[in-house]
Design a protein that fits this description.
Layout: H1 3-16, E1 20-21, E2 39-40, H2 47-60, E3 65-71, H3 74-90, E4 93-100, H4 108-115, E5 121-125, H5 128-140, E6 149-151, H6 158-161, H7 166-169, E7 173-176, H8 185-198, H9 204-222, H10 230-239, E8 241-242, E9 250-252, E10 258-269, E11 275-286, H11 294-297
Parallel strand pairs: 1-2, 3-4, 3-5, 5-6, 6-7
Antiparallel strand pairs: 7-10, 8-9, 9-10, 10-11
Length: about 300
């Protein structure tokens, strides 16, 4: 799950000659500037892939000056970078960027700075306990409903929503390549089955792993069940294109990364009264390079604290 750990594991598997199918490793450069041979991301994403979309959507909403707060690590740099890059290219201004440690416990100081920033909206990119802590502070300071908050996928993934009250989370907007409240048969049936089996809404991790299993099944079927040739299996994986998964339609680009839908989502009450993400708007066939030319994009630096597009 952690970008630096996933990349290290993938590099070791490459030395062992074992292909790695990794739908949840979001490090941009694994399929961009520093590709690791044998790594394929079926039903996967890059951290900036979804936030490129959000930069465009935020500008379309009329926001012109935003602040961002993200992890002070590669995962955060890529989330914030994708958003800032497109938002600035559209003509917007990112007037304040804050970074916090992955184990940050107190968000009061950050929220105070954001409250005083005089911006149209705030973008947040973190996950897990950090997301829960930040959103609780955002609500406690009375900023929910006062300043539009734009969250990346992991902030309002079910891994966070399960630990948040309706008062804190209901109505919040995020971007992601999975929306468990999407009203399409493949998503609805998966969400209902997962809820019945586990008593919980599925996270993006569950949906991505399930879609990857579908992907592998189709590749195995195409080979008639013969997996004796690793190269043939990898070629079969690359040839798969699925019209509908819980994530939506998916296919691989020439860089072994998934092109698919990205959703603007809103937290609502769903099945069994549980919180879930419904779809406000769908951006179809989103590339890891957004609308930029891949060759030109790969000539720019990777997103970092110093380079945000």
């Amino acid at each position: 799950v952690l970008t630096h750990v996933g990349a290290a594991v993938a590099e070791e598997m490459n030395r062992q000659g074992v292909p790695v199918l990794t739908p949840v490793l979001s490090d941009d450069n694994v399929t961009q500037r520093s590709p690791i041979e044998g790594v394929i991301r079926p039903a996967g994403w890059t951290a900036s892939q979804v936030t490129h979309v959000f930069g465009d959507w935020a500008y379309e909403q009329g926001y012109r000056n935003v602040a961002t707060i993200c992890y002070d690590m590669q995962f955060g740099y890529e989330h914030c970078g994708g958003f800032a890059h497109v938002f600035k290219d559209r003509g917007g201004e990112v007037s304040l960027q804050l970074w916090h440690a992955i184990a940050e416990a107190d968000y009061a100081g950050y929220v105070s700075q954001l409250a005083d920033a005089d911006v149209d909206a705030v973008f947040v990119g973190n996950s897990g306990p950090a997301a829960v802590g930040f959103l609780q502070a955002w609500s406690d300071f009375g900023l929910k409903g006062e300043i539009p908050l734009l969250a990346t996928e992991t902030v309002l993934d079910q891994t966070s929503l399960r630990n948040l009250t309706s008062e804190v989370a209901l109505g919040l907007v995020s971007v992601g390549h999975f929306a468990e409240g999407r009203d399409e048969p493949a998503t609805r049936e998966f969400t209902e089955a997962f809820l019945e089996r586990t008593g919980r809404m599925p996270s993006y991790f569950a949906a991505a792993m399930y879609a990857t299993a579908e992907w592998v099944e189709l590749a195995v079927e195409a080979l008639g069940g013969d997996l004796s040739n690793t190269e043939a299996f990898v070629d079969a994986i690359r040839a798969v294109q699925i019209d509908e998964t819980p994530l939506g339609p998916v296919s691989l680009d020439p860089y072994d990364h998934t092109t698919g839908n990205v959703y603007i989502r809103q937290v609502e009450e769903g099945l069994d009264g549980l919180l879930w993400n419904t779809v406000i708007e769908t951006y179809p066939e989103v590339s890891q390079f957004w609308t930029y030319d891949p060759e030109e994009y790969l000539q720019t630096p990777a997103y970092s604290r110093d380079y945000q597009g």
